[in-house]
Specification:
By secondary structure, this protein is mainly beta. It contains 2 helices and 18 strands. Strands 1, 2, 3, 5, 10, 11, 13 and 16 form an 8-stranded antiparallel beta sheet that branches. Strands 4, 6, 7, 8, 9, 12, 14 and 15 form an 8-stranded antiparallel beta sheet that branches.
């Protein structure tokens, strides 16, 4: 009896919270296009994706609350995805874009920018590079591109050329459970392009390649040397960078 109980308990503890599981969404053709750049001094950090497929998390409908403080392994309200992007220049993250497939106009999500440590996001509350005015509404039935303008928050995320940042796209509950899917290419490319958190706990990020979704993803950061009326002269970048190291 004790052995059976131990096995049952072990199986229970191994299951993701809320029974959250990865679910492939529909494929789409032709792929969505990214909006063009407005400023010639800006550049885009992407994974080179022109999404024609999608992925979501079923049973991922957590509370409306934002990041919940806690130690690694503790609940954090972070059921969702993290997508690493390599910064294309020294500058401010001015805009983040996410391509959603199969979404309702009223669907909600949380948007974060996290710095990287050892290949996964630094998701501790208060250590984010950027936290949007969460929760955000997708606002249109998918497939659609949702853009978030960080200039309205004075561009809190300062980044440096080739730095690895993670775009966090996290589920929340609204009047009805969100059922959005994030766009991806359906061609396998390998590990290190997307991570999923099926428990919502701090640090519980698993490479999507291990689930058969080693794809390029429909996320983009627009990075520029100035944020609204806040420029950073090229000659000062070395001094600024030293403050962050």
């Amino acid at each position: 009896m004790k052995t059976a109980f131990a096995l049952s308990l072990g199986l229970f503890l191994a299951l993701p919270a809320f029974g959250a599981t990865l679910v492939p969404g529909p494929e789409w053709a032709p792929p969505l296009e990214w909006p063009p750049l407005v400023n010639d001094t800006d550049c885009t950090s992407t994974q080179g994706a022109n999404p024609n497929a999608s992925l979501g998390i079923q049973g991922a409908y957590g509370p409306l609350g934002a990041c919940l403080p806690g130690d690694p392994g503790q609940p954090a309200n972070l059921i969702g995805f993290a997508f690493p992007l390599s910064s294309c220049q020294d500058g401010f993250v001015k805009t983040t874009r996410v391509q959603f497939f199969t979404a309702e106009a009223s669907d909600l999500f949380q948007l974060y920018i996290w710095r990287d440590q050892g290949g996964i996001p630094i998701d501790a509350c208060g250590l984010e590079c950027g936290v949007a005015a969460n929760p955000l509404t997708i606002g249109a039935a998918g497939p659609t591109v949702r853009s978030y303008n960080w200039v309205n928050l004075q561009c809190p995320c300062l980044t440096f050329n080739t730095e690895r940042l993670h775009v966090g796209v996290v589920y929340v509950n609204g009047a009805t459970p969100a059922d959005w899917f994030v766009g991806r290419n359906n061609t396998p490319v390998g590990a290190g392009f997307g991570y999923g958190n099926l428990t919502g706990n701090h640090g519980d990020w698993q490479d999507l390649n291990g689930f058969g979704y080693g794809n390029h993803w429909g996320v983009e950061n627009v990075i520029g040397p100035s944020c609204g009326t806040v420029p950073v002269e090229e000659t000062t970048w070395g001094v600024v960078k030293s403050l962050y190291e």
